[in-house]
Structure prediction request, 357 residues.
Amino acid sequence: MATKKILIVPGDGIGQEVTAAGKKVLDKIAAKFGHTFQYDEALIGHAAIEATGQALPDVSLEKMRASDAVLFGAVGHPKYDNDPSAKVRPEQGLLKMRKELGLYANLRPIKLFDELLEASSIKPEILKGADILFFRELTGDIYFGEKGRKNNGDTAFDIAEYSRYEVERIARKAFEAARGRRKKLCSVDKANVLETSRLWRETVQQVAKEYPDVELEHQFVDSMAMLLIKDPRRYDVVVTANLFGDILTDEASQIAGSMGMLASASIGDGTGVYEPIHGSAHDITGKGIANPLASILSAALLLDISFGLKAEAAAIINAVDQVLKAGYRTKDIANATTPANMILNTEAMGQEVVNRL
Ligand code: IPM
Ligand code: MG
Prediction:
């Protein structure tokens, strides 16, 4: 029976709506399995900028450090997308959180629920049975290198940088995970062009010697973008750098039917952060139609990885599966044949999962 502190950080847009559903599911788990979860909330992103002028206020960071795990929503606001000159931006809060908490490994499991075979834009016979676990490096690369302007602002630069230890630690995590799965690891880089990628490949090959039981392959990122859609079942665990992982996992979301289904875990030195891979989606914010399943599945990852509560995590995944089997859908995963009364709003979908727990 665990007593744990969970920090809810809804952030912006649909982050509010979906984390509310995630929290309800955690409450149900606590009641059912006899755990005590203590909650607190913190601001990040546009919501934090409006309230404090900062994208990640110090109080939020302190609360994160003091909690056992964070259930995170999303950050972003359309206001900044067309204003490249804005100095303070919601995404800075997210990046600062990743760096400050040392969240160097981002796990993005891509698993297709059979009931959603038809929701994807890829042919069902290509998809059926696909099950990939991405390890995206999260605190290095072009995201965190020096950036700036020169030549009176007419030239811009972003430096990509990786150190050996950064590649080693993410590679080890990926090899370990592969060991517990189908023992296949694909490392993705651009070693035919980039020096950081050559260090990446060299380091992954070095680490591979500790894992002779895991079959390692290397792919260039451009080729991987194609292979992922052509033959997703070929992959088990995939490890890649920050920017490549950002792009490939959005692409891979189509293997799972919808972005609205994908959960992720960001782990490293301290508190783990669990969040949907989808963004703040301001186009549907406040309409109550967002798919809460990614947040609910993020709560399952939280229980599994940060608290070691495997049975509780499995119960959530099973409940989600049951709800989908019963035919319930949110708008993003519905299709032309879904009866109107089976298309649920965010709250009702969350409630269906709770009911099955
Ligand atoms: C993600 C997002 C973020 C990223 C953005 C919001 C900064 O796309 O978590 O994948 O690029 O890492
Ligand atoms: Mg992304």
DSSP finds 13 helices and twelve strands in the chain. The CA atoms of residues 191 and 198 lie 5 Å apart. The first strand starts at residue 3 and ends at 11.
